[in-house]
Amino acid sequence: MTGLILLGGIVVLGGLLVGIFNKFAKNRNMVQDAWANIDVALKKRHDLIPNLVNTVKGYAAHEKDTFTQVIEARNAAMAVPKGDINGQIQAENTLQQTLKSLFALAEAYPNLKADTSFLNLQTQLTEIEENLERARRYYNSTVRENNTYGESFPGALFAGMFKYQHFNYFEAAAGEKENVTVDFS
Asked: If we measure between CA atoms, which residue out of 105, 95, 101 comes closest to residue 128?
């Protein structure tokens, strides 16, 4: 009889551990899937930046420091190892800041603001940023679920054993939280 109770206890405990392990795996996979959606939008943004820089260069060639900063930030973002989501978030926030300086520069050149190539690139970048924002919201919700489970009971008890990974939120970079109005008309 006690052997049967012991066996039943082991089966229940084993089932509980399998459930906890599966929850960790599910959460990690959801975060990685959500990041893949962000990665697609980031690649589109990375591909658009050289065209944007070259268009602005045509009007403001003497603003070399700004162009260099944008390209260096883009290259740094592209060089982050695949799978280093937290590193990618930091690099993308830096890139976002340098893009702001590029658009601020464009404000000083009325002919550039009227250039159809520049306007087309601006429209494309706006669409990419809107897609990125939607993907970022989904990613952050999956990160919240993952982190909450890994830091609460019973997940916290088994986090080390099941290789729980804490993920950072993909939040707006410092200075990006304020509403910025850029008018190219």
From this structure: 95
What DSSP character marks residue 178?
S
Please classify residue 99 by burial: count the beta carbons closer than 10 Å to its beta carbon, then call 0-12 exposed, 13-18 middle and 19+ buried.
Answer: buried
Asked if residue 131 has pLDDT above 90, the reply is yes
Q: What is the DSSP letter of 181?
A: -
Two tokens at 27? 């959460």
Angle at 167 between CA 165 and CA 173, to 5 degrees: 165
DSSP 169: -
Beta strands (DSSP E) in the chain are none
**DSSP for 78-121, written as a single string:** HHSPTT-HHHHHHHHHHHHHHHHHHHHHHTT-HHHHH-HHHHHH
CB 89 within 8 A of CB 168: yes
Claim: this prediction has a pTM higher than 0.85 = no
Name the nearest CA neighbour of 182 among 103, 96, 71: 103
